[in-house]
Amino acid sequence: MQSCDVLVIGGGAAGLMCAITAGQRGLRAVVIEHANRVGKKILMSGGGRCNFTNTGASPAQYLSANRHFCKSALARYTPAHFIELVDRHGIAWHEKELGQLFCDESSKQIVKMLLDECEAAGVRIHTQCSIERVAHGDSGQFHLHTTRGAFSAPALVVASGGLSIPSMGASGFGFELARQFGHSVLPTRAGLVPLTLSGKHQERLEDLSGVAFPVEARCGKAAFHNHLLITHRGISGPAILQISSYWQPGDDLRLDLLPGQDALESLHRWQAQRPAAELKTVLGDVLPKRFAQRLCEVWLPNRPMKQYNEPQLRELAAQLEAWPLVASGTEGYRTAEVTLGGVDTDELSSSTMQSRRVPGLYFIGEVVDVTGWLGGYNFQWAWASAHAAGSAVLQE
């Protein structure tokens, strides 16, 4: 039996950061990772450049059954703290858009930085180490029986992630462990994921695969202005990935095809300036031509601009500003960037991430019912929740 102060299950962003934070306090931290290397999702993120945080991160960009839960951790470990760490390691970075920060070179630099910090803090990491059983003894010790031997510690941190991208080794292990210790797990589903179309909805768009353009996607009170990408199976792109976290089958999904414009005002202008031009032609100047043509074949009556009367122009404007799109589902966990739902935050301390049911047990990162928007917010939650737990373990 190998003993230590803190056992961390999961060698992803949250697990490594938690181990570093605990190790810097002089605690003996051990990370258990079942894959052959740590930080796999870090390596693939941001197209290999790792969108490691967002300068605008605030509780407003997170979904949770308890929207207040994330406030404490996010306030105490901010994007500025992580940027300072990145700068200290000499990693060059840039802001892409909307506060999204990426490495100039490679996401490998973030993993190396975390591993270097682990080494400096005396953290031990065991990869290719699968957990067979977790027990909690009367003495308060947690016992992990693994394929690499047995480990024990008075503190156990679960940072095993969610169900997203099973090809990277994702599993429901953290949720099962939470239930084992009497925790409630809120229903999970894929988030930040492409939407699928079926039947006539797919048939009308599938040959436009690869066409992309800016839209404002709306579902309920949520709205995102960014690009849409038509795929063979449905729709993707940042605007759709964002809205997917708010959409569920049966929900009304609308797209503003002329975001930032007053559609009726534009139609009036086109009618005055180009009365003989057909609708598909003028729309083809502001939308991809193939999409504008399909729009006028299926959804909008196509005729020369001078032939529309005022009520018809108003109807066209209403369609362009709230074009209905009937999605049938999502691509699921296979391509989802995050998992919505997870360990119920009502049973965790928001300041320490410790279980209210089992002393010494902590849940951090994606396994918790806190999910960020696309754009570095989920990494910031990983860093912040990990720092909260790593700062709190074994505090008297």
TrEMBL record:
SUPFAM superfamilies: FAD/NAD(P)-binding domain (SSF51905), HI0933 insert domain-like (SSF160996). Its cofactor is FAD. Keywords: FAD, Flavoprotein. Transmembrane segments: none annotated. Residues 189-338 form the RsdA/BaiN/AoA(So)-like insert domain. The keyword Repeat does not apply. Pfam families: HI0933_like (PF03486), HI0933_like_1st (PF22780). This is NAD(P)/FAD-dependent oxidoreductase. It comes from Agrilutibacter solisilvae.
